[in-house]
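Many introductory courses stop at the sequence. We go one step further.
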Amino acid sequence: MELAGLRFAMHNLGCKVNSYETEAMTEAILQEGARLVDFTEEADIYLINTCSVTNIADRKSRQMIHQAKQRNPEAIVIATGCYVEGKQEELKEDKGIDILIGNTGKGRVVELIKAYREAMLENDASPMEPFSPVREEGEYENLFLSKPKDKSRAFVKVQDGCNQFCAYCIIPYVRGRIRSRKEEDCLEEIRHLAKEGFQEVVLTGIHLSSYGLDFENLSYEYASRKAETGEALLHLISEVGKIPGIQRIRLGSLEPRIITERFLAGLKEVEAICPHFHLSLQSGAEKTLREMNRHYTKEDFKKAVEDIRRVYPMAAITTDVIVGFPGEREEDFRESLAFLKEISFYDLHVFKFSRRKGTKADEMKEQIPDNIKTARSKELLALALEDSKKFREKFLGKESSILIEEIREIEGKYYYTGFNKEYIRYILPVQDKQLAEFEENQEKKDERLSQLGKEAIGSIRAVKGLALKGEMILAEWDA
């Protein structure tokens, strides 16, 4: 049953792992001849890759699923991802969904669509439920993405699942245990991306720091005690760094416990590594960290940051913090705030605690009222803006290499935009005589901008920062 000519629309919710999976499924469907349309348009097939990290994510997932069926009641609606995995019994009764796929089986999406369409012809198209027991999955489901939407940076999923069971987190239940992608499969995809012109890859996973431990059947705790955490990941990074054309390697979220002298020494040998580290903290209060089951102390976290800054003095360090965890007293919040000020992060992602049924935190007493969560969140967001500005100011007037991504119009002027290795966005004025000539001819102007964009994307340039412009650095070309 062919898919040629069918209109296909997709919507992704959640993390970069979800984004990668959505793009891989989309690519597989389009290779069958389907035509991509916007999710707001009428389509013949809708794919929604859901998220369940918070109650808001659950609600958005439900909304997107139902919007699809409302746009075209005759369309095939596919719901997949974490929300589906967690609510599978409930969703089997949802008349707005035709195909349910949990967090395994995404590689079979084309096969499942064809099977469902075949059943429709035979008037036997009951909802399909291809569920594997994700908690018991022992093998990594290998997806392959050859042409990411982003024209300069490619996310590559190398790991899935988590064994940490933090008290607030539903992810181990809906993503299953750690599963790592074989190194050669990772490298094959990245070699292909390099040939396609991508110069930067981002290695990502649900618990990236666990990469490769399942190859040796090791627990993270055992590996930490034996100083073996990060060995497989470090080897993968080293091999990626040898691939011609790859000039930047960026890492997804890391455990602070993976940051050892040995790990940093290995990273330092890879020239392409970006000194941009996302270390997930969640709280700077010792009591809250213990109750969250985070497996490290704030002193462990502080040492990891100090070690990074000793090796990479200008490193960008970002983190996640939850406010309003059950039992978080005012003094706990103040302790956490003081710690965040002490570390001074480049970026701070702030989340209000969201109860997830099935987690330990959902059953805890002393749930915090939402108005208190909101007030604490605002205080942390204000700190985040202040610290981010301080960090970006360190790059003013200094030479930096950026990866140009696009041309953007800002206040009536055109700029090249892109990031340096520390993930600071730069803008550089587009100086092109032909743009001025085409000022009255919008069609020719758009053509010229498109041409300039194609020429610029992927090139790495040395620039000098002049001034901050919002959250960007306005720079000039280095002569």
